[in-house]
Amino acid sequence: MQFSEELVRKITDEVMAQLRAQDLASQSVSPLAGRERVNEKKTDYSGYPRAAKGSDPKEVVIGVGAAFQREIKKTICGISLDDVLANVKAGIEEEGMVSRVVKILDTSDVCFMALEAAKLSGSGIGIGIQSKGTTVIHQKDLYPLSNLELFPQAPLMNLETYRGIGRNAGKYVKGEQVVPIPCTNDPMSRPKYQVKAALMHIAETEQLDPEVGAIEWEG
Question: What is the pTM for the complete model shown?
Answer without folding.
Answer: 0.83
